[in-house]
Design brief:
Blueprint (H helix, E strand, L loop, with lengths): L1 H27 L7 H17 L4 H24 L5 H20 L3 E3 L22 H21 L2 H11 L1 H6 L4 H27 L1 E3 L6 H15 L7 H21 L7 H24 L1
Antiparallel strand pairs: 1-2
Helix pairs in contact: 1-5, 1-8, 1-9, 1-10, 2-3, 2-4, 2-8, 3-4, 3-8, 6-8, 9-10, 9-11, 10-11
């Protein structure tokens, strides 16, 4: 039971980092960015490549952030500069990344069981007192760093412009700023976070699989909506709500498997949970208006 709970918390924190990126695109920019289904495995592929070539797990995560930011930049440029619809921009990049991810990783499945990662290296192995909670502690610290970074950024002038761009682009123009450039920055940052989560997930499970990003958008949206709606009355930042939403979401998935549902039905379970969250959220909004 303890192992199951630890697994839920660990994966919840990883998906929490990913959901912070979805929060930027969905909640702040109102941009349905499907490219995240490609940038999540991109992070895993980048991390696999660098670790197998002798680099540390930390370096591989940093390189994944750069790669994810570049992918988000391309998605935004296609939308902003080439005037392609936002949904189609994400689909184009997501489709292209499938081949790029295969090229980077070398094949569709790659294991790194004997390699050093952020969870298994000379530094962390010296902290014997952490025991079975070692991975959870590391993930908590990493998630906290990303959360604090995002909170600090959103309180800057650039962060306020990012939030304003999603709500009122006309006001941004009146302030003498180009909302298109701000959108490019936001999508780059969002996909950097998603890509980092993919790199961390690969090191957590110690293998890369080309289809591991399938459903990333749905998982992220479900976590964002669940967290923000469920903790709406609590005086905590949205970033905290999103991470908590991801943990609760993984908990629901874990319970579904514990009661006997097959792991092979995970995608179906995900779709059903997301539909229920949407319906409950919509019903709540209608009650508030009434």
């Amino acid at each position: 039971m303890m192992n199951i709970l630890l697994g839920i918390l660990e994966q919840g924190l990883i998906f929490g980092i990913m959901s912070l990126g979805i929060y930027i695109t969905y909640e702040i920019l109102d941009f349905p960015d499907l490219s995240v289904d490609g940038t999540f495995p991109l992070g895993a592929a980048i991390s696999t490549y660098f670790i197998l070539n002798g680099f540390s797990g930390v370096v591989s995560v940093l390189m994944a952030i750069v790669a994810g930011a570049l992918a988000g930049f391309i998605t935004a440029v296609i939308n902003v500069k080439l005037k392609v619809q936002d949904l189609l921009s994400g689909i184009i990049v997501m489709t292209g990344l499938y081949t790029i991810n295969l090229f980077i990783a070398g094949k569709s499945n790659v294991a790194i069981f004997n390699e050093k990662t952020i969870f298994n290296n000379d530094v962390v192995n010296n902290f014997k007192f952490t025991g079975q909670y070692k991975k959870l502690l590391i993930l908590f610290l990493i998630a906290a760093v990303f959360k604090i970074f995002l909170d600090l950024y959103l309180n800057t002038k650039s962060g306020y412009l990012l939030k304003t761009t999603g709500n009122n682009q006309t006001l941004v123009k009146l302030l003498g700023k180009d909302p298109g450039n701000i959108k490019i920055l936001g999508l780059s940052m969002a996909n950097g976070l998603v890509c980092a989560a993919g790199a961390i997930m690969m090191q957590h499970q110690r293998f890369f699989e080309i289809s591991m990003g399938t459903g990333t958008m749905i998982i992220g949206l479900a976590s964002v909506i669940l967290g923000i709606k469920l903790f709406k009355i609590f005086p905590i930042k949205d970033s905290s709500k999103v991470i908590l939403g991801a943990i609760i979401y993984r908990g629901i998935i874990g319970i579904a498997i514990m009661i006997g549902l097959s792991p092979n039905s995970l995608k179906l379970i995900t779709a059903i949970i997301f539909l229920i969250i949407l319906l409950v959220s919509r019903r709540g909004e209608e009650d508030v208006r009434a």
